[in-house]
Amino acid sequence: MKTTKRIISVALAAMMAVSAFAFGASSASAASLKKPTGVKATNTMNAIQVKWSKVSGAKKYKVYRNNKLIRTTAKLSTKDFSVNAGTVYNYKVKAVNGKKTSAASAAAKIKRINFSDFRSLTNTTNGVRVSWHKRHGATKYVLYRKSGSGSFTKVTSTKTNVYVDKDVTSGTRYTYQVACYDSATKTFSARITQRALTYLAQPTGLVAREAGSAKSVELNWNSVKGAKTYEVYRESSTSKGFVKVATTSATSYSDTDVPNNPAGYMYKVKAVNVSTSFASDERIVLFAPKRDGVNSYYFMPDEDADNDGLKNLHIVLNFSVGEKYYEGKLLADFISANGLYNAEVIEGKDVVSIDDSVITAEAEGSAIIKLTVNDECKALLDEFGNKGAIKTASRVVYLMITVE
Q1: What is the pTM of this model?
Q2: Which end of the chain is more exposed for a tag (fewer CB within 10 A), N or C?
Q3: For the chain, how long is the longest CA-to-CA vector?
C-alpha cells in the first residue's frame, strides 16, 4: 500500500511539473513578444497603406494612428481610408498574443497626398510638353518617363506642374507618370495614372511654288520620322482661320484651282501620328500665286523668332534666281518711301537687290535684309500719344533669304 501511494505521489508530482513547465513556456512566449519592425506607410490611390514585418508568436496586430487604435488585424498590412490630403500622420504597430501585447513599434511618419493625373501631353517645337494637376500637400513633383516598352526612369523634379521634355526623338512613343512629393516628410504620392504619345518633330523645309499656272501651288516639305500622314492647311490673307485642304502620306501636295486672291494665301503642314491622334506644331510658309511675274509673300514670325522683349521677327524666304518679292500691300509700305521702315541688306548684297518696292534674287546664296522703323514713323506715333504702337513698331524684322 505504501508503495502504491509513493507511485501515485511521484506520478502526480511529475504531472504537476510537466503542467507547470508547459504553462511557464506559454507565458514566457507571450511575455517575450517583440515589437514589430519594418513599419512603413505609403500613399495609395485612395488610402494610406501600413505594412510591417511578422513577429514570432504574435496572433494579431494592433495599428495606431497618432497614438489612437484604429484597427486590429491578423494580417501584416492594413489600409487607412479615413485620411485627409495635406495632413501628417504617425503610425505605430503592436504585436498581440491573447492578453499579452508587445511594446509599440517605431513610428512611420507620412503626409497624405492624393495622386495627380495629367492635364495634357502635347508636341512642341522644343519637345513634349507635359502638364498635370497640382495637389494639396505637395512641395514638388517628380516626373518619370519610359520609351517604348522600357522601364520608367526619373526625368526631373520641379515645383511647377508643367515641364517640357527636350530629350526626345521624333517617332518614339513616350509614356509618362508623375508623383507628388513632400520634402519635409519625404513622402511620395502614388503613381497611378499614366499618359503616352508619339513625339513628332516640327515639319521643316516647307516650300510653296507656282505649279504651271496662277491657279496651282506646289508644296514640298521634309519628312518627319514617326509621322503617318500630313495635313495641309490653307488660309486666305483676307479670311480668318486655316482650312484643311488635304491629308496625304507624301511630303508634297499640289493645291490646284486656287482662287484668285491678289493678297495671296498662307499654308501650313502638320505631321500626324494616327495611333495617338497627336499632331506636331506647324511651320507657316506664306505664298501667293504669281501675278505679273512677281511672287507675293507676307510678313509673319518664324517659330524661332528672337524674343528680346520686342519680339523681333525672323522670316524665312526661299527664292530661285530671278524671282522677285514684295509684300501684299507693296514692300514700299514698309520702307522709307512711305515713312515706315528702313530696308538694308546686311548680308549677301551680291545675292539680292532692293529697288523701291521690289526685292530681286540676283544669284544663288543667302542674304539677310533688316527692316527697322524710322524716326519719321516714331515721331508720327508719338504725336498721337500711342506709346504701345511705338513699342510694337520698334521691333526689327529680318528677312532670312535663301536663293537656289
Answers
A1: 0.58
A2: N
A3: 146
